[in-house]
Every structure is written in C-alpha cells, then in structure tokens.
Specification:
The protein has 5 domains: 12-91, Phosphorylase Kinase, domain 1; 98-273, Transferase(Phosphotransferase) domain 1 (Transferase(Phosphotransferase), domain 1, Orthogonal Bundle), CATH 1.10.510.10; 333-394, no CATH class; 407-524, no CATH class; 529-650, no CATH class. Helix content is 40%, strand content 10%. It has 20 helices and 14 strands. The chain has a 5-stranded antiparallel β-sheet with strand order 1-2-3-5-4, with helices on one face. A 4-stranded mixed β-sheet has the order 12-11-10-13, with no helix packed on it. Helix 10 runs antiparallel to helix 11 (383-394) and helix 10 (359-371) packs parallel to helix 12.
C-alpha cells in the first residue's frame, strides 16, 4: 500500500481520512452489507510491530466490543486489512467531540455529561475494563447530542488532536493523566475517576486546571502542583474536584457510583443556584494554596518521559475478591517511608549500583510490612503486593530472593497459627499464597511438603482440643474444611476414625442439649453467604436504572428477564456476573459495609438450590467466562441464567 492509498478491507468502501495520529489512521467508510457509514480505525505498522502485539490488540479489542452501553461507542468488527494491519470499525459520529463544545459555567449541562460518562465507566469497571485515556477528544456526540466515551482500553496512544505539540507528544492525553500514571505505575479504575475530575474542571471553567507548553511539563504539573481553586460562582464544586483529583488514588472516590452519589448531593445542596453562571475569563489559582517543596526535576522527568514513550495494549481486570495492588515506583504504600525517594514526587532520586530504579522502595516497603505483620492486607499496603512489584522489576536481585524466603516463612507461620486457632479460611489463604511464592522462586516442592507436615501437626492439635470438649460436630466440620491440605489418604482416614470413635462414645444428649452442643461449631464454617431476593434486586435496579441482560427464552418463546422469572420472595435469577458485582457494590454503599462474590470453596458447603450463585473464579483472563456454584462448566458472564442468582459474602 502506498503512502497515499487507502487500505483494502473486505466489506468496506473507504471514502476518506477523517483523523490521523502517531498510532493509527481513522477513515470514513461505508459498510457495504448494511449500507451504513462507519469509522475504521487502522493501526499503523510501526505501532504494532510484531505478531504477538497484533494478536494481543485484537483480543483486547474484542473484549471492548462486548461493552454495550448507551454512553459507550461500540465496536462493530475487529479484523485485519489486506496488508495484515489490525483494524476495528465503529459508528461514525459526525457531531464532534467534547473539546469542541463551549460549556463554561453551564452547570446543568456539565453535570449531565459527567453523569453519563460515570455511568459508562461504572459499567466498564465492573466488567474489568479500565479506560486509561479519558479526555475531551474521546467524548463524542451522536445525532441527539448524547455523550459517548470512545477508545476504551485499546492503547496509550500519542493521539491526533488539536493539542499536539511539534514534538508529536499528545498533550491532550497528559492533560488528564493522573500522577500514578505519570510515574509509570499500574493504574486502576481510580485513574479514570481522576481524568473525569480534570474533564469536569475543564467543562466548568473553559480551560484545563494545569497549563503547560508540552506534554512533559503538563505531566509534571499533575504530579507536583496543588489542585487549583475554582472561581467564586463555582466554589461549591471545589470539594468534589479536590477529592476526584487527589494526588493519591486512595484519597479519591472509590468508584464511579460513589462519584454519582456525590454529584447528587452537590446538586441538592446548590438548590436553585444550580444554573448556568458567568465565569470570569481569567481564573487565577488561589495564592494561599500550599506551594510544593523542592523536587528533583531530572528524576521525575525521566520517569514521565518513559511513560510517554511507551504504548501498552492491555486492560486491567477488576478483582474484588483478592488483594492486587502494584504501587508506584518509590511510592510509600500505606504511609510507609520511601527510601531514597524525593519527598514530594515519590520517585527515586538515587539507587545503588546494579539495581533497578524503584526496586529499593518496593523492598523497603515489603520488609517493613512484614515486620508490621501486614502480609496480605490491607490493600495497597501489604508485603505480598510490594514484593510482587519487586519481582516485576528485578526477580533475581539478592534482596528480592531473600525477602521472598522471609515472606514464605511468615506465611507458613501465619497458616500454622490460624489453623491452631481454628481460623481455617485464614490458614488456607496463607498456605495457598506460600505455595504460589514457592512456585515463583522455582521451588521443587520440598518446602511445601514440610509445610504440609507442619500444618498436619497443627490440625491434629486443633482436632484434639475439639474432641476434648467434646465437640465431635465441630471436629467433623474441621476435617471437611481442611481437605485443601492434601494430606495422605491413610492419614485422612485415621483422623476421621478418631472423630467417629469420639462421636460414638459421646454421652447421649437431649434435643435441647444437642442444640447447645452444636452451637460452638458454627464459627468453624468459613463464611456464611446471603442470597439476594428478586425484591431486593428490584430496589437496586430501580435505583440505578440498570438494564436487564439476556436470559434466553422461556415457554412459548417469551423473553426471560430477572423481573418476570420467579417471585419477589425467591432468589433473583437471570442476572449476569457484572450485575452481581454491581449489586454488591451498591448494597455495600447502602449499608456502609463491604460485600463480594463468594469463592468456590466458600460455597462448597452451602446449598446450591433453589439457585446457584456467581463465583469469583474466572475461566479465562478476561473473565468473559465465569464459574457458578454447582455448575461443572464455565458460563458466559455477560448473560443471565434461569437457575443462577446472586450470593454474597459480607466482608466486615
């Protein structure tokens, strides 16, 4: 294909180029089979240089294509041109993007757009997709002026937009980039929320919160400069902006739903004053705002340049049931000091010879967290996550290996101690993490064999204590809940025989006394799950305007849905895994508690009738296939089933 020729794509008639950037070219085309106009985004050869990156791009584009929301620009098709270049087609939206709109001071219009974008992000986040490039140019409008979020999770691009510098760096992207992304850290849903905060500021004031001549300077301002002050007519928005644009992710709103609730409260407090207002043409930052302390510009600049020069092609699964955090290089997780790091930026200012930048901080945090007993929790401040980050930087560093051995020993001790105390769930989690750690460091299994023997002794001690009470029922429950130990069958039979003998020799008790005897066994159960009724789910669906998912057809071809299947008092069915996760988040907000989907082990001892429940266990990397209790095969996570409902575990 020559430089001026259009690519050849079966089924499409390309008309002209409508956009071009450093990673792709966008063409206006006609899809011949459906006689409709579409936009074709064709990746440039230099953007995806090898087959592995092209295949990864296609897989993740297909994941994005499953996002079907009224405020998300969908993907019609993913494929390759005749020259082998990946492309995807999407609706052609000729009404322009948000950066072309003048909304300064128009509070009702601004809040309507922000709400629409947050609803789109909430939908994507519960499905494991983080956008990572929310900006004005990625908010398009359809024929009825409905805002729609585009370019979900495909890449960190050096895109084409009016804010392009001569050097070819996209200021449009860095203008909305959260500090952790500028540092090169992994990002989660809170990065998108930060970008929404920047976008909100821009719509309200008609300008960006930070201004700079180039992308690098812009990214530095997001990391180091204080959050600017809004003008007097908009000062009631300041609290919302301050929390949304907090430098640390943990100081921001936890989810898009939280932000939507905050918007409702903001509008309610403003009352009749929530109208279009006049905003001064020149907005000066509050001179009383705290000025940053001295910083090392070369260290921060190097990190930001590295981020701006790298395009990655992956989305980040949202895992509610496990702790998965990768703090920024040098960032003090959970308030821990970051050794050899700049006091304000958290980036490394000096490293020992032969080490990799950021490694020292991860290792220092991991060591301190182990000394504090924070092995697997709290989130963003535990030794497992810090050491995991160190492994990603330099797995063969001597201190990485040393701390890995220490964490293994600490997890083994925690598993032993928990089992002796009767906390089987904690013991199992620590054992499984220790097994993962041993596998990661290349262990041949001898350490795990020794750990099993140690836990066998702990199990024996706990069993003996229960039988001495005597509490044969709790002893049986203990054996049933420790099968994960994988003890030798002969050993299992011997332990079971001890329990059976103790049960037979126990003094007969009356029915009333039996209740008293059985009561202490209840804490031995790992968890207790709750089933969500149709009436409970109806309150959630009504309050959040959540659409029903596909659930197939019933008798006489009637389309099944959660609201026409079963009854209000029975468990809700015909809900997807994403519906279940969204309900858990909503219920937690209503009750100020935390809920999550159960694991397979947690439901193993629970009844699977009348309906089963979605589990945390995914069958593929994208979680498009997910397991449900009592089901032998994975199910499509994006649709509902007439015998699968919602079961939740309360975490606090």
């Amino acid at each position: 294909m020559s430089a001026n020729a259009h690519p050849e794509i079966d089924g499409y008639r390309i008309t002209r180029v409508i956009g071009q950037g450093g990673m792709s070219i966008v063409y206006l085309a006609e899809q011949v089979s459906l006689d409709r106009k579409v936009a074709l985004k064709v990746m440039l050869a230099e953007a995806l240089a090898d087959e592995v990156s092209r295949a990864r791009f296609e897989n993740e584009a297909r994941t994005i294509a499953r996002l079907q929301h009224p405020n998300i620009v969908g993907i019609h098709e993913v494929g390759r041109t005749a020259e082998g270049l990946p492309f995807y087609s999407m609706p052609h939206l000729p009404r322009g993007h948000l950066a072309q709109r003048k909304l300064q001071g128009d509070q009702p219009r601004v809040i309507a757009i922000v709400r629409a974008l947050l609803q789109a992000l909430d939908y994507s986040h519960v499905r494991g997709v983080v956008h990572r490039d929310v900006k004005a140019e990625n908010v398009l409008f359809d024929e009825v002026e409905r805002p729609m979020l585009a370019d979900f999770g495909i890449a960190l691009r050096r895109g084409s937009n009016p804010r392009l510098t001569n050097a070819g760096l996209a200021v449009g992207s860095t203008a909305y980039m959260p500090p952790e992304q500028a540092r090169g850290a992994e990002v989660d849903r809170r990065a998108d929320l930060y970008s929404i905060g920047v976008l909100t500021w821009e719509m309200l004031t008609g300008r960006l919160p930070y201004n700079a001549a180039d992308a690098l300077s812009m990214a530095l301002k997001h990391v180091q400069d204080p959050i600017p002050r809004l003008p007097a007519p908009l000062k009631h928005w300041q609290g919302f902006i301050d929390r949304t644009m907090a430098k640390r992710p943990e100081d921001r709103y936890a989810s898009a739903q939280d932000m939507l609730l905050a918007l409702d409260q903001l509008e309610a407090r403003a009352g009749k004053g929530f109208v279009a207002v006049e905003v001064p043409a020149s907005i000066e930052a509050d001179t009383a705002a705290k000025r940053p302390v001295n910083w090392k510009p070369w260290a921060l600049a190097a990190a930001v340049l590295a981020v701006l020069g790298i395009a990655t092609f992956r989305f980040f699964p949202v895992e509610d049931d496990v702790i998965r955090a990768q703090p920024a290089a040098g960032t003090a997780a959970g308030g821990l000091p970051s050794p050899e790091a700049d006091a304000r930026t958290g980036l490394m200012t000096g490293m020992s010879e032969g080490s990799t930048e950021g490694l020292a901080a991860y290792l220092a945090n991991a060591g301190q967290q182990m000394r504090d007993g924070h092995l697997l929790s709290p989130a963003n401040a535990n030794a497992w996550d810090s050491l995991d980050a160190a492994w990603r930087v330099n797995a063969t560093h001597p201190q990485t290996q040393q701390l890995t051995a220490q964490l293994f020993d600490a997890l083994a001790e925690a598993s032993d101690r928990a089992l002796r105390a009767g906390d089987v769930a904690v013991s199992r989690t620590a054992f499984e993490r220790a097994s993962q750690l041993d596998s990661r460091r290349g262990g041949e299994g001898s350490a795990i064999t020794l750990l099993r023997k140690r836990l066998d002794a702990a199990l024996d001690t706990r069993l003996q204590a229960l039988l001495a009470k005597p509490d044969a029922l709790a002893a049986r429950q203990l054996l049933a809940n420790t099968r994960w130990l994988g003890l030798d069958p002969l050993r299992n039979r011997a332990l079971q025989a001890r329990v059976d003998v103790a049960g037979k020799s126990a003094r007969p008790v009356s029915a009333a006394a039996a209740v008293t005897v059985a009561a202490p066994a209840a804490p031995a159960a790992p968890v207790v799950t709750i089933a969500v009724s149709r009436a409970d789910y109806a309150r959630f669906a009504t309050g959040t305007s959540r659409n029903a998912v596909d659930c197939g057809k019933g008798l006489f071809g009637r389309k099944r849905s959660w609201n026409n299947t079963g009854s209000d008092r029975r468990p809700v069915v015909c809900v997807s895994a994403a519906d279940a996760q969204a309900y858990a988040a909503w219920l937690g907000g209503q009750e100020q508690r935390r809920y999550r989907l159960p694991s397979a082990g947690e439901l193993r001892a629970q009844a699977t009738t009348p309906v089963s429940g979605w589990l945390t266990l995914c069958a593929d990397r994208t979680c498009s296939q997910r397991m449900a209790s009592g089901k032998l095969r994975a199910l499509d996570a994006d649709r509902g089933y007439e015998d699968v409902g919602i079961r939740l575990v309360r975490m606090d």
